[in-house]
Amino acid sequence: MFRYKKGLLLALVVLGLGACKIKPEVPQNKPLLVASSTFTSYSDSTQKEIPNIGTFFADSTLSALIDTALNNNFDLQVAMQRVEVARAGIRFSRGLGIPEVSAGVVAGGKKFGDYTIDGVGNYDTQFSTNLNDKQSIPQPFIPDYMLGLQSSWEVDVWGKLKSQKKAALARFLSSEFGKNLVQTQLVSEIADAYFELLILDNELDFLEENIKLQQFSLDIVRVMKQAGEANQLGVELLKAQLLSSAAMKVEVNQQIIQNESRINFLMGRYPQPIKRPKFAWEKVIPPTLSAGVPSGLLKNRPDIRQAELELQARNADLYTAKAAFYPSFNINANLGLQSFKALLLLNPASAAYGLAGSLMAPIANRRALAADLMASRAEQKTAYIGYQKSIVNAFTEVYNYLYLIKTNADIYKLKSEEVNTLKNSIGISTDLFRSGRATYLEVITAQKNALQSQIELINVKKKQYNAVVGLYRALGGGWK
Hints:
The protein is of the alpha+beta class. Helices cover 62% and strands 10% of the residues. The chain is elongated, with a radius of gyration of 40 Å. 29% of the residues are buried. Keywords: Lipoprotein, Membrane, Palmitate, Transmembrane, Transmembrane beta strand.
């Protein structure tokens, strides 16, 4: 009867502990900023889904480069291994709250002192008439053999183990989105470098055209100098301009090599030429993309999802740190065969078992627990601030790229007209120079201004591509 009362009392204690709950702690920070319904006054809010890589870029060569990079990129491979580490954490957390059972064979022995309780007791036992030959204790060294099972179980009274599982799951999902973030950045970097290669190819064509024109003008001045209609100063100035354009051509070739090497490194291979189509200048058009609504960032941006899951993990860590101050309830059990004689180990009479329960709570020297709780609170607030920051940063990036796309389009239109005008001025100045109505300085100025305007137009085209690819990345494209 007394045993039943003890069992009932223990059950009531466990139920009473289970009825107690640890209140979750919410960071006392300012609420998140409320974004407007659209990014800008002119942005298109009809977009609901971010197009995939193949649909958005629509370039078979670029798609092939991206596919190779997704398989071979070093940073992405490291990110995938981080996912595996987090997956191992998930597998480990699944065992929390489940009784641990181990099987084993133990062999050992002891020799007790003659002036100890065990030594005197064992010696005195030899004279007992209640023992048979099998039960006589070996002297002076007493072997101990055991074959059986041992079990240990921590009852999750406060939900501490459950919160550890939540933290492990959140970190696994966070690592997945961390990998997606690396993939998004990888896609945008390859696209940036690829489009810059296309632009540099056209810039090289511009320089070659100008070099031909400058060489033609230099040949004319040399002929006129021989005829006494020009002087050596004109020859030297036109020659210097030609050499400057040739140097710029060498520099552009160097930039092409650097971009090819950049793409090759992102693809995880050694430097080699990048085979690519040759597009006419007017056909090098950036892809278009509408911005959608700001709320779409919350599901598309991998860095926001990663920050959100990291916050969930920190919340669970804080709960675990608070639960560490409460008593832990453990149950230990063993079952098997035990004997001090090896020949008697498998005898049914050697059966032995044990069961024990413990309820332990930290009382003195809880500084380590308090320090852990303090650190968990700080890290939870840090994760909360990081989550806010990622949202505001995402909105700001999209906002800036939208304006950048619009302003670059306006600049490109004006620069195109300027290039056409200055190109016409080259022919006009050359004809006037031949007829003696313009000086060679005017020819040089016209050629220099035309070349400079073409280079500026090239740079605007680069900015257009960078802005569109940047918007694609800012909206969360490139990882699905």
